[in-house]
Amino acid sequence: MNLPDAEQLLAELTDKIRSDVTKDTVLVGIYTGGVWLAERLHKDLECTPPLGTLDVSFYRDDFHEIGLHPQVKPSNIPFEVEGRHIILIDDVLYTGRTIRAAINELFDYGRPASIRLAALVDRGAREMPIAANYVGADMVLPEDKMLALEQKDNGKLSLNLYDKISPE
Known about the structure:
Number of helices: 4
CATH class: Alpha Beta
Number of domains: 1
Number of strands: 7
Shape: globular
Oligomer: single chain
Strand order of the largest sheet: 2-1-3-4-5
Distance between the termini: 27 Å
CATH architecture: 3-Layer(aba) Sandwich
Structural class: alpha/beta
């Protein structure tokens, strides 16, 4: 399968978001790929408030099934969430469970004025009523495939397709 160029999708996503970013808009990336995207968007959109990051591991509704990922990172929300306009950023939007977990975590910090969602790729097949406001590309993929954003040593982003590992 021929995958789109992640750098080109990021440029298109940046253009789609640009008109909605004000000096008070805050960006929050979801680990890991969403943080890479948020870092680039924060720079390219010349955002002045600090960048926020979320690791939603403890907020997932399947935590009891998948357990703790060995690379859990601390969330960092270095601004007041109460009343803020937030753009939540993830790499691949699929079932909606990661986004639900991220929203739950954000509300633990306060009640934002709004939360908009940006995703580099929307692969459909939602299990929850979640929709992105900004999308780089829509893709239909077989359920047995996993789409992953990867960052090379030079900082360039790429999309890769893998076979899902079945739980034993």
